[in-house]
Specification:
Shape: elongated
Helix content: 40-55%
Structural class: alpha+beta
Largest sheet: 5 strands, antiparallel
Number of strands: 8
Distance between the termini: 138 Å
Order of helices and strands: HHHHEEEEHEEHEEHH
Number of helices: 8
C-alpha cells in the first residue's frame, strides 16, 4: 500500500515539476498572444479609419480590416502554441486545422454560409451603412454590416437583425441608392370637372411647394376612370431621398394640391353609389327602348323617369282593378 502511495506521489511531483518547467513558456505564450491581439485590433482600426471617409471604400475597409484581424490572431495563436509545445510543427497545425475545418464546416454550415454572404455583401456593396432599405416586411436604416448578419434600425426605433444569407439571396429595395427619388399620389376629381384645369392646378401646386425639384419636372397624368372619380396621378422628385424628407414633402404637396383644387371649385369626389329600380309592373318591362332607368336613351323617344312611390301607387291601382274584375265575374 505504501509503495502505491509513493508511486502516486512521485507522479504528482513529476507533473508539478513539468508544470513549473512549462510555466515560463505558458506565460510567454500568453504575452505573445495578447500582443498579437492588440496588433490585430490596431490594424483593424487603422484600416477602418483610413476608409471611413470614403463612401465607396467603406465596406471594403470593413472586409480588409476583419480579414487582417483574423489573420493576425491566427498567426499569434500558431506562435503561442509553438512556444508551449516546441515539438509542434507548423505542418502539424495546418493538418489539424484542415481536419477540424471540415468538421466545423458540417457542424456550422449556416454560420459559414452567413459569413461568406457577409463577405460578398461587403465586397459587392448592394447597399451601404446609412442606406435606407426595404427587405420583405422590414424597412429602416442600415446600422452595421457584420460578417454574420446585418442590423437595421426601423423608423419607429427598433433594431432588426437579418442573416446575411437572406439578404444576399433575396430582393432588396434600396431607397437611398440614388440622389433623387420620385414620389407619387393619385388625386380623384369628379366626372363633371375639367381634367385639363385640374391637371394645371395640380402642377401649379407642386411647382409652388418648396423642396420639389424642378428638374426632373413634376407631372400629372390621368391613370384611371374609377367608379366615382377620375384619378390623376401627381408625380414629383425630391432630394435627398430619405424617409423623413419624403414624408415631410408629401405632406406639403398634398396640402397644397387640396387647397388649390378646392379654391378653384374642383370637386374632390368621394365614392358614391346609384341604385336603379326597374318597373316590372308594366307591359313594356324588358323593352329597352321604353325603359329609361339603367340604359342609354339612344336617339329615339326618351321615356320619363319614374319614382318608386309612383310605381307603388300604380301597382296598387292594378291590384285594385284586378280585384274589382274578379268580384264582377
Amino acid at each position: 500500500m505504501s509503495a502505491e502511495i509513493s508511486t502516486a506521489w512521485d507522479k504528482v511531483q513529476e507533473m508539478i515539476n513539468d508544470f513549473i518547467i512549462l510555466l515560463p513558456n505558458l506565460v510567454l505564450a500568453f504575452i505573445v498572444f495578447f500582443i498579437f491581439l492588440f496588433i490585430a485590433r490596431t490594424i483593424k482600426q487603422m484600416v477602418r479609419r483610413f476608409t471611413q471617409n470614403r463612401r465607396h471604400a467603406r465596406n471594403l475597409g470593413l472586409v480588409l480590416g476583419r480579414l487582417a484581424q483574423g489573420t493576425t490572431v491566427l498567426v499569434g495563436l500558431f506562435i503561442a502554441l509553438s512556444i508551449i509545445i516546441p515539438s509542434l510543427k507548423a505542418g502539424d497545425l495546418v493538418q489539424l486545422l484542415g481536419i477540424s475545418g471540415v468538421a466545423i464546416g458540417f457542424a456550422f454550415r449556416d454560420i459559414l454560409q452567413n459569413f461568406l454572404a457577409g463577405i460578398l455583401i461587403l465586397l459587392t456593396e448592394p447597399f451601404q451603412i446609412n442606406d435606407q432599405i426595404v427587405f420583405k416586411d422590414f424597412e429602416g436604416t442600415v446600422e452595421n454590416i457584420q460578417t454574420r448578419a446585418t442590423t437595421i434600425r426601423t423608423y419607429d426605433g427598433r433594431r432588426i437583425v437579418i442573416p446575411n444569407s437572406e439578404l444576399f439571396t433575396n430582393s432588396i429595395i434600396v431607397n437611398t441608392a440614388f440622389d433623387n427619388r420620385r414620389l407619387e399620389y393619385d388625386v380623384g376629381i369628379g366626372y363633371g370637372d375639367n381634367i385639363e384645369q385640374a391637371r394645371r392646378l395640380i402642377l401649379e401646386a407642386m411647382g409652388e411647394t418648396e423642396g420639389v425639384l424642378q428638374q426632373p419636372e413634376p407631372d400629372a397624368i390621368v391613370v384611371d376612370l374609377a367608379e366615382s372619380t377620375v384619378n390623376i396621378r401627381a408625380r414629383w422628385w425630391i432630394q435627398p431621398p430619405r424617409r423623413a424628407d419624403a414624408l415631410d414633402l408629401q405632406d406639403k404637396v398634398l396640402t397644397a394640391i387640396k387647397n388649390k383644387l378646392v379654391s378653384q371649385g374642383i370637386d374632390l369626389a368621394f365614392p358614391t353609389q346609384v341604385i336603379l329600380f326597374h318597373d316590372q309592373t308594366e307591359e313594356n318591362d324588358g323593352n329597352r327602348s321604353r325603359q329609361r332607368e339603367g340604359w342609354p336613351a339612344g336617339k329615339g323617344e326618351v321615356p320619363q323617369t319614374r319614382s318608386i312611390g309612383g310605381s307603388l301607387r300604380k301597382l296598387i291601382e292594378l291590384q285594385s282593378q284586378q280585384n274589382g274584375n274578379s268580384k264582377t265575374e
